[in-house]
């Protein structure tokens, strides 16, 4: 006759609890190693305009277009996959907007993470002949939280800039994101006088953790064929 161990169920329960604890610790370690999990939305429309207020992902599987100025705000992150191609289009504007423009403006506290690589750079390509006018602008402006060496940077009277944007702060090691292996087409001429930005990439009060490297600026001397 076999004797039943009255402590067997308890030992089984302890063993199961220990196994669950080990699995839970392993899962937690994996999350720690991989960094925090983020959720991003892939836009339904291929053409972006207006405001981005939530984490957004532009994949390399689709061709994207930016119509006018796209503002990344509300501490959202705009992530762009390596190999993505983004067409720049004039967005019109009030009363026809005498200053054609297209690009991205990243608000203070928001981020852009555009991490291309040498084999698959991220390309911002002009697809609208209006952006080759001498008074046109196309580019990326990133506004950060770090102290600025300059006491004043003229932003508000750029005709394509949304009013009320701030920059600077007390966070010298802040990060506004990553711009890596970017191929960017720019205009052929300088902007006219009047404190307007030239076409290209501008970092204003971005912190030391903002990463920018391998950015290629290509001057297009011919109009697109569209």
- The domain tally reads 2
Mean pLDDT: 76
Helix content: 10-25%
Distance between the termini: 92 Å
DSSP summary: helix tally: 1
Number of strands: 12
Backbone structural class: mainly beta
Silhouette = globular
pLDDT below 50 for ≥5 consecutive residues: which ranges? 7-37
How are helices and strands ordered from N to C? HEEEEEEEEEEEE
Features:
2 domains; 1 helix; mainly beta; twelve-stranded parallel β-sheet; 226 residues; 12% helix
Description:
The structure is a single chain. The chain has 226 residues and is mainly β. It folds into two domains: 7-37; 47-219, no CATH class. 12% of the residues lie in helices and 33% in strands. It contains one helix and twelve strands, in the order αββββββββββββ. It has one helix spanning 8-34; strands spanning 47-52, 56-58, 64-72, 77-80, 85-89, 101-106, 111-115, 122-126, 137-143, 177-186, 200-204, 211-219. Strands 1, 2, 3, 4, 5, 6, 7, 8, 9, 10, 11 and 12 form a twelve-stranded parallel β-sheet that branches. The chain is globular.
Question: What's the layout of helices and strands?
Answer:
Blueprint: H1 8-34, E1 47-52, E2 56-58, E3 64-72, E4 77-80, E5 85-89, E6 101-106, E7 111-115, E8 122-126, E9 137-143, E10 177-186, E11 200-204, E12 211-219
Parallel strand pairs: 1-3, 2-4, 3-5, 3-6, 4-7, 5-8, 6-9, 7-10, 8-10, 9-11, 10-12
């Amino acid at each position: 006759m076999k004797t039943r161990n009255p402590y067997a169920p308890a030992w089984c329960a302890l063993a199961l609890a220990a196994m669950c604890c080990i699995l839970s610790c392993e899962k937690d370690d994996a999350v720690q190693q991989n960094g925090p999990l983020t959720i991003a939305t892939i836009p339904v429309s291929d053409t972006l305009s207006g405001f981005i207020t939530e984490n957004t992902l532009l994949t390399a599987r689709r061709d994207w277009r930016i119509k006018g100025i796209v503002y990344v705000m509300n501490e959202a992150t705009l992530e762009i996959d390596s190999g993505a191609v983004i067409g720049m289009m004039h967005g019109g504007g009030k009363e026809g907007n005498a200053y054609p423009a297209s690009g991205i403006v990243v608000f203070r506290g928001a981020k852009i993470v555009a991490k291309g690589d040498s084999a698959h750079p991220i390309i911002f390509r002009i697809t609208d002949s209006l952006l080759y006018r001498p008074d046109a602008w196309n580019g990326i402006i990133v506004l950060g939280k770090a102290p600025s060496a300059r006491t004043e940077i003229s932003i508000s009277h750029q005709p394509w800039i949304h009013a009320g944007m701030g920059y600077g702060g007390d966070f010298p090691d802040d990060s506004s994101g990553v711009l890596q292996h970017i191929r960017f087409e720019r205009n052929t001429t300088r902007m006219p006088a009047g404190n307007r930005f030239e076409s290209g990439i501008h970092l204003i009060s971005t912190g030391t953790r903002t990463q920018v490297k391998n950015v290629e600026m290509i001057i297009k001397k011919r109009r697109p064929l569209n």
